[in-house]
Amino acid sequence: MDLNGLSADQAPPISAPIRFFLTAPIFGVIAGLLILLCDPQMLISRYSIESIVITHAITIGFLGFVMLGALTQMLPVLAGVKISKIDTVAKVAHIFLVFGTLFMIFGLLEDHSKLILASSVFLGIGFLALIVPMLLALSKVVHVTASVRAMITSLVFAFLIVLMGMHLLASYGTDKFSSLHVLLANVHSVWAIFGFAGVLIIGVSFHVLPMFYVAPRFKPFCKQKVVWLISFGLLLWLVLNIFLESYSTVAKIWVALFFWAFATTVFLKLYRRRRPISDVTVWYWRTAAIFMTLGTFAWAINDYYDSRYIVIVSILIGGGFIFSIMSGMLYKIVPFLVWFHLNAKGYMSIPTMNDMIDKRLAKTQFILFLISLVGFVVSFFIPSILPIFAITFIVSMLILEYNVIAPVLIYRKIIKTKPEFDMSAFNISVEGIE
Question: What is the CATH number of the domain that holds 177?
Fold first, then answer.
């Protein structure tokens, strides 16, 4: 493992990111239950309340929690910046996000205006409580690396989509929709997928692939230009949608091209890594690259076919690309955090990262997830079989939750024992899970 460039002395308490990682699969289970219990015909339209609820149970409840947890850990370590009282901030944000997401789910399903409005406020506070301090901290970085630049760009998009999301939720709560509601909803979803999640994944991969997989480093052009080119394409897409909608496909193809290039780069780097040992996380990265290529291509040309097929595009990109990356990274980040924090406290008799998670269970979880993903696409054409794949998805999320908990239990067990070395003389701020 290549740990060059990590600022260990800035590491936040393990409890700050881990609470997000432990919560994410639970919302995956909730999303699966919602899919299982709803009328499959209602999910064919992206504008149905059921589709909106399930989509956000996944995008906020799972993807959002994993990304915020990862940022909580990576900003201090990769960027070398310290967010004041990060454990308290993360705890408060986590509480607001959990209740905000639950309020949104039940508020929209039950058409309860007060719950919907409360969810808008809670989610806004939860997201902004982390996003704003992160942006302020990053603004003070002297040496701006490619990963830092990508994280800043991603968080700017996150800030904007949170404001849009609050407005869109409030519209459902007050039952007052502006003439720009559909456009705003489209911008919200596209910028969330490509601007927030997509750019963040690309930026983080600059460090993650060489660090965890000993893969070749990215070339300067990719690290210095791609994030700006994607951002330009997303802004161009917005302008064209407002003024020249018939030409918006040009911007979509522009954005898609750079994500295709990134997918190809990921494949090549994983193939050329110096330690060609395959595990479930490599499978997830390769799966993500495949679905990213398929999904962005389908999105780029979706103006030329029935608009309802955008649901399939969402499954390919949101599930196949982003969900795969986030699931795979949980298998790397959580064991790494446990090892990192125990090692920093002077514990030497620590299980290796590979030994903290049952490999057979991880592979079973990946296979069930992949079956679910393909099944969701097929179910768009044969809705009656959707419950089968909802069940496989629920089981995969339950296994993922177990696999995330396992390393944490190892941490709690070891931290109760006496460390082999006294690390109190070293300036490494690492706290336990409270």
Answer: 1.20.210.10
pTM: 0.92
| 319 within some domain | yes
Q: Is residue 257 part of a domain?
A: yes
Residue 431 placed within a domain: no
- As given in the structure block, the two tokens for residue 131 are 């996003």
Q: Domain tally for the chain?
A: 1
Give, in order, the Cα–Cα distances in Å from 261 to each of 208, 251, 276, 281: 18, 16, 22, 21
Residues 6+ apart with CB under 8 A from 318: 55, 58, 59, 63, 193
Indicate whether 418 belongs to any domain.
Answer: no
Question: Which H or E run contains 148?
Answer: helix 146-174
How buried is residue 9: exposed, middle or buried, by Cβ count under 10 Å (0-12/13-18/19+)?
Answer: middle
String of DSSP letters for 200-245: HHHHHHHHHHHHHH-PPPPPHHHHHHHHHHHHHHHHHHHHHHHH-G
Summarised one tens digit per residue, pLDDT across range 336-379 is: 999 988 988 888 888 888 889 999 999 999 999 999 999 999 99
**Angle 113-138/65-74 helices, nearest 10 degrees?**
20
Contact present, 254 and 284 (Cβ < 8 Å): no
Supply the range of the domain harboring residue 58.
8-412
